[in-house]
Amino acid sequence: MFRQDLSQAFTRTMGCSGSELAAWLQRALPQASLAIESNAAIGHCRASYADGELLIEWHALEPRRIALLSVPQLEVQFSYSGMPQERRQAIQTYFDRATQRGGG
Cα–Cα distance between 57 and 76 in angstroms, integer? Predict the structure, then answer.
C-alpha cells in the first residue's frame, strides 16, 4: 500500500480478470451502494456513499507471461468525487487490502 493524492483520477494495473474484480467489489467496498456492469473485456462500477462517489473503470490487458505461467491483467482507473481526502484514503486502503492476493 502506498499513499497518494486521491483528489485526481489515477490508474493501476491489477493482476486479475474482470470477472474476479467484479466478484470482489462487494467485499472490497462494503459500505457503498454498487452499480456494476462488466463483460469479459471491460467493466465499470459506481460506488455511491452518503458523502461522495467512487467510479472504477477497467479493461483487460494482455496477460503477463512468465515462462509457462500466464497471469491476467487489468488496467483499472479510480476516480473519487465529493469526499474529503482522509475518507478517500480510508476507502482506498480497505479496497487495496480486500483485493490483495496472498503471498510471501
Answer: 6
